[in-house]
Amino acid sequence: MAEEKQSVRTFVSIHIPASVREGLRTVQTELERAIPESAVRWTPFEQLHLTLEFLGDVATGNVPPLESALEQVATTHRPFELSAGRVGAFSSIRNPRVIWAGIGGEVDAVKALQADVKNRVRSFVAEQEARAYKPHVTLGRVRPVKARDLRQVSDALATATERGFGSWRVDEFALMQSKLSPHGSQHSTLATFPLGG
Q: Would you state the torsion angle of the CA atoms of residues 10, 16, 17, 23, taken in this order, to the nearest 10 degrees?
């Protein structure tokens, strides 16, 4: 019998408090009402988060040294304040593929943390994201739809851009596991890392 692959699908993220996620869920609901039902796969409430780095499959045996590396990163950064607001889309509002909420507040602090995380996890991942890091919360992913439906998504986004969903103090980040299933991915926390040690 073939040996089962021993790896975990992982990413590094910052948790978003329920009070801010409530605001994000409100705008998701507004957009859902304005666009065709099957046009967007919305991020579940409990999975709304701020990704620092997606690692993909990491060998189970590499998880403890990965956690040690992330712990070292955490000790060199201090807590900071972030906020969520402004709805937008990649690649653009007119051609939406990923619907997001933008991140404000101490953006330089989160970018510096992300850069350190990216540098430290380099040896644990097969391929890293080449694009510049743009902190955001993914609200939903647009499915392949007809041009008419895509226009409705675009029009709805154009009316929902300027928002404020609240702010929070970031005092830790987490290593997360993502298990794929027919019902979507299931997220669980493998370890958390307090900033400043």
A: -130
Q: How would you label 14-43 residue by residue, b for 16+ Cβ within 10 Å and e otherwise?
A: bbbeeebbebbbebbeebeeebeeebbebb
Pair 12, 173: CB distance under 8 Å: yes
pTM tops 0.85, yes or no: yes
Give the tens place of pLDDT for each residue, 17-72: 999 999 999 999 999 999 988 899 999 999 999 999 999 899 999 999 999 999 99
Placement of tokens 């021993």 in the chain: 6
- Rounded Cα gap, residues 92 and 96, in angstroms: 5
Start-end of H helices in 35-96: 63-75
Domains of the chain in start order, with CATH, are 7-194 (3.90.1140.10)
CA distance 101 to 87: 5
**Under a CB-based contact definition with an 8 Å cutoff, are residues 77 and 196 in contact?**
yes
Look up tokens 């391929």; give the residue.
Answer: 127
Helix (H, G, I), strand (E, B) or coil at 94: coil
